[in-house]
Design goal:
Length: 220
């Protein structure tokens, strides 16, 4: 937990320990980044309003180092801040004051997603010049590897496995994030990030399509 407010940091660490987690705290981004490099955690919680390196840059640096799930825990609930944090690479966003049961449920969902495996072999899925390999965890465009986060990959696989079918934002929240309800901005921002990586302006057909008022679909 990277949080500069000593009271909040200590209370969250203690509450998470009561929920059965091994939790550690860091008062600055610099301290948290160093701790993650030396003793990697399964999940990192980040406040946005940090001294020195702020939360947005902290997320970007964490994301450059590895694909660890990142959850923002912040009092800032403006849409701009939520979108900016998710675009920086966060997987989820929780607004203070935090209900520890809700936060614990989010963390359990992240853990389930990280451990999720495919029971049966899944062939490479092809959409024009886009190839998705669920088993290998790879995305390629015109043969070149596309760097995607864990969440982006799971979202793309979910859409690919239901090719041509429109999935609503709530369906995607449930299937990818494993949330019963939640902030639909999570879906919109991750779809936007995927589009930047798998679409181009060459005139080739778009595969990731918005169906206004309904949701998203991946089409060949």
């Amino acid at each position: 937990m990277i949080e500069d407010d000593d009271r909040i940091r200590l209370s969250l660490v203690l509450a998470l320990e009561d929920e059965g987690y091994a939790a550690r705290g860091a008062a600055t981004a610099e301290e948290g980044l160093a701790l993650q490099r030396s003793e990697p955690a399964d999940t990192v919680l980040v406040d946005l309003m940090l001294p020195g390196i702020d939360g947005f840059e902290c997320i970007r640096q964490l994301r450059r180092d590895d694909d660890v799930p990142i959850v923002v825990v912040s009092a800032r609930d403006d849409t701009h801040d939520v979108v900016a944090a998710l675009e920086a690479g966060a997987d989820d966003y929780v607004v203070k004051p935090v209900a520890i049961k809700e936060l614990s449920a989010r963390l359990r969902a992240l853990k389930r997603r990280a451990r999720a495996v495919t029971a049966d072999p899944v062939p490479t899925l092809t959409f024009g010049d886009l190839e998705i390999s669920p088993e290998a965890g790879e995305v390629r465009k015109r043969g070149a590897a596309v760097a995607v986060t864990r969440t982006e990959f799971q979202l793309l696989c979910e859409l690919a496995e239901h090719a041509g079918r429109v999935l609503s934002r709530q369906q995607l929240l449930q299937r990818v994030w494993q949330y019963d309800g939640g902030d639909e901005r999570l879906v919109d921002v991750h779809v936007g990030r995927l589009r930047q990586k798998i679409e181009d302006d060459s005139g080739s057909p778009r595969h990731l399509v918005t169906v206004r008022g309904l949701g998203y679909k991946l089409q060949r």
